[in-house]
Amino acid sequence: MSLIPSIFGGRRTNVFDPVSLDIWDPFDGFFNSALATVPPSAKETSAFANTRIDWKETPEAHVFKADVPGLKKEEVKVEVEEGRILQISGERSKEQEEKNDKWHRVERSSGKFLRRFRLPENAKTDQVKASLENGVLTITVPKEDGKKPEVKPVEISG
């Protein structure tokens, strides 16, 4: 765990030695033991579950943008459920391993993701549009016109 290799012939440094270069990590080994009880399918799901989604409201619509790099439109699903719930889901499959392949680093995550958003009252859920371009999923939910009811003055007699 030392940041600089020891100059004393590979001597292990000690956390109780005041000149030691060890950095104590209170979580060292915690995550490995905690994840040992989690099923492998849950680990795969959690790896890709943090799909980032932005939601902005314009005068005309609610616009959602999700980063889904490397996914095809067949691998992403956009649904509107009862109660104005927008559901965005998808899955990135693991790359097939060949026996002759030698992996040096695996950083891209795989697994499933699912995000749900409750749409406001003014959302036109029957006119939702979605597009996927350059790894960005854009979902546009038009808004109902926010016209105020016409106020008609009433003349008072008497």
Automatic annotation (TrEMBL):
| TM stretches of this protein | none
Q: What domain of life? A: Eukaryota
Please list the coiled coil stretches.
none
For this UniProt record, give its keywords in alphabetical order, as a comma-separated list.
Stress response
Mind telling me which InterPro entries this protein's record contains? A-crystallin/Hsp20_dom, HSP20-like_chaperone, Small_HSP
Pfam families named among the record's database cross-references: HSP20
Q: Gene3D superfamilies annotated for this entry?
A: 2.60.40.790
| Domain named SHSP: residues | 44-158
* Family to which the UniProt record says this protein belongs: Belongs to the small heat shock protein (HSP20) family.
Q: What is this protein called?
A: SHSP domain-containing protein
- Gene source species: Morus notabilis
